[in-house]
Amino acid sequence: MASRNDKDASRLSLGTLAAAGIGAALGLRRVLKPRFQFAGRTVLVTGGSRGLGLVLARLLLKEGARVAICGREESTLERAREELERGGGDVLAIPCDVTDPVQVEAMVAAIHERFGAVDVLINNAGTIQVGPLESMTLEDFREAMDTHLWAPLYTTLAVLPEMKRRGHGRIVNISSVGGRVSIPHLVPYAASKFALVGLSDGMRAELRQDGILVTTVCPGLMRTGSPRNVWFKGNHEKEYAWFSLGDSMPFLSMSAETAARKILEACRRGDGEALVGLPAKLASLGRALAPNLTAAVSAFVNRSLPQDSNTDRVRGSESETPLTQSWLTELTRRAAERNNESEVPIH
């Protein structure tokens, strides 16, 4: 007769084999599952006229997607359209303020007429206000929430009926590491990005049953060239200096092209969340494992930042100093020229 130990060993062996079999089957399923392709798909990129949105549009066109971009500044949008079309892409550029639901509905209708239903929505449009909390007004918070919460909601609701009807679709919400860890002197931005994370995660849970996959993207600093178009308050020259210097440092920031490729890969895989860049991953992990330590570090960083309650808003392009025009910000200046963040982009 087999001993009890022999029977237990036999059961353990069978259990191990079963687990291995299940794992192998799941792995084989992933290998055999058709890879999501952007070719022939209609993709809407909000805020696609410059910065990260423009870089995403370039990559999508290279993959054979039909791309619609939108932006509020018509001259910037027109430059983006001309550049993208020179590359032979199928592009539709639509002036649209995505914080206005009426304009959003009209934009989606125009895309439907030209390309058909939207297959992939990338909610990328954004705004940033930099300065101490006492320099921020309620309007700053409203603007951030309108852009990072309400606008993605409007665009999602506009494309959702067709996605549900067809039983498939992908939505990518570009939040930020600031949507996981609130960063000093970026409170309106961080608060609204936290709201977007909650909206995105909730939509993922509810829409998966309809065949719609939602990806929440939380990147760290990216060298898109955007500091020139960011709003600065308080001591705007000093605020612009620390922001643009951080944006230019390779070990703190990543290129917009690298970030865009990682975002599209996350969308292709249908990931629930993508933390893009090592700093974003470390900050998010630190916040989860050591929230009190993270809060203490944030408070320490805040004490080193300029303190000024001036509520006037000034663009980064109007806050230049010899320091921000030095070799230290060369990478950001090149990105601004490359990604249509300057008046005349280079090609």
UniProtKB/TrEMBL annotation:
Residues 331-347 have a biased composition (Basic and acidic residues). It comes from the Bacteria. Residues 319-329 have a biased composition (Polar residues). Residues 41-225 form the Ketoreductase domain. Residues 306-347 are annotated as: Disordered. InterPro entries: KR_dom, NAD(P)-bd_dom_sf, Sc_DH/Rdtase_CS, SDR_fam. Keywords: Oxidoreductase. The keyword DNA damage does not apply. Gene3D superfamilies: NAD(P)-binding Rossmann-like Domain (3.40.50.720). Pfam families: adh_short (PF00106). Belongs to the short-chain dehydrogenases/reductases (SDR) family. This is SDR family oxidoreductase. It comes from Pyxidicoccus parkwayensis. The lineage of its organism: Bacteria, Pseudomonadati, Myxococcota, Myxococcia, Myxococcales.
